[in-house]
């Protein structure tokens, strides 16, 4: 990806957690050293489920502060919130007229989020993936660093780009590639190794938040579900021990090692020894982010200024791309 353009997004629905950090944000930080990087707080996606207006504003500031505290540099990257750049919603409508019901019906995230009460889900929740395709393609992004749960949405983005290109007979959109971490593609709940760590889980003890205090991090790891067996010396032996495998994966991602290397170090040891070392690694990573985030949150006007500056730069890139799409479709341009 020598001269690719990187785009990714995160929803402002509560605080960011360890899954967001290890699955996505850590790699966002590294990519900005080498590539053009555009990072978006996707508030239009957040309102696909009901949001309290005050809480949405607070969460947008918190996510902006958390991204900057994690190492996103507003000079090296473009950082903004989606609703400030009208091209996202505009291109999403154009893509609603390209994507097929059959494609959207396959989306597993809609099925999970809508649950049993599907008739009551918003149209926006159903069309969520076309807006995500618009986010990426409004910038002709070539690479998208995400966790494993977004893979299917990326495939749909490629289908939409391919369909658009063939409708208008030119390779207008690139087909974006996902960048998915090897060890931290899917961080699981601390209480259930079969479900993903998520902001929406009712129990806070299922996740580590990036603003958790050190004592709380230690307590959450102490209480994390495990089993009585010691750690084995091969990864295969963890196949039926999802909670143990998750903790090994977290340790590996935090220390930039493979899971096999972690097992080499800890094989034969019980969780009584492993858990406190894992908690120390987590505290070493999270406490500087949390402290910096709290400093940044003391000046919300500065955060607004950064997001506003980012949205101006984002619009300068996406406006000509979306205008060109409208021209290809055959819309008359009034010239105003
Ligand atoms: P969101 O806000 O749910 O999550 C942000 C990023 O964190 C990753 N992630 C995880 N990775 C590993 N383990 C976990 N437990 C975990 N939980 C979350 C997500 O995969 C994601 O990369 N639809 C997207 C936001 C979005 C977007 C985009 C992403 C909107 N437009 C365009 C990329 C490009 C979402 O809801 O992410």
Describe the structure.
The protein is mainly alpha-helical and 336 residues long. It folds into two domains: 5-185 and 299-329, HUPs (Rossmann fold), CATH 3.40.50; 204-295, Tyrosyl-Transfer RNA Synthetase (Orthogonal Bundle). 53% of the residues lie in helices and 7% in strands. The strands form two sheets. Strands 1-2-3 form a three-stranded parallel sheet. The protein has a two-stranded parallel sheet with strand order 4-5. Helix 7 (123-137) crosses helix 8. The longest helix has 30 residues, at 300-329. The two termini are 38 Å apart. Tryptophanyl-5'AMP binds at residues 7-11, 19-20, 23-24, 42, 45, 132, 135-136, 144, 146-147, 149-150, 184, 186-187, 196-197.
What descriptive keywords fit this protein?
two-stranded parallel sheet, Tyrosyl-Transfer RNA Synthetase, 2 domains, 13 helices, Rossmann fold, single chain, 7% strand, 336 residues, 3-stranded parallel beta sheet, mainly alpha, binds tryptophanyl-5'AMP, globular
Question: Which range does the strand content fall in?
Answer: 5-15%
Portion in helices: 40-55%
CATH class of the largest domain, anyone? Answer: Alpha Beta
- What is the typical, i.e. mean, pLDDT? 96
Q: What ranges have pLDDT less than 50 throughout 5 or more consecutive residues?
A: none
Category by helix and strand content: mainly alpha
The H-level CATH homologous superfamily of the largest domain, spelled out, is HUPs
Strand runs, count: 5
CATH architecture of the largest domain: 3-Layer(aba) Sandwich
Beginning-to-end CA distance, first to last residue: 38 Å
Identify the bound ligands. tryptophanyl-5'AMP
Compressed to H and E, one letter per element, the order equals EHEHHEHHHHEHEHHHHH
Order of strands across the main sheet: 1-2-3
Let me know the largest β-sheet.
3 strands, parallel
Shape: globular
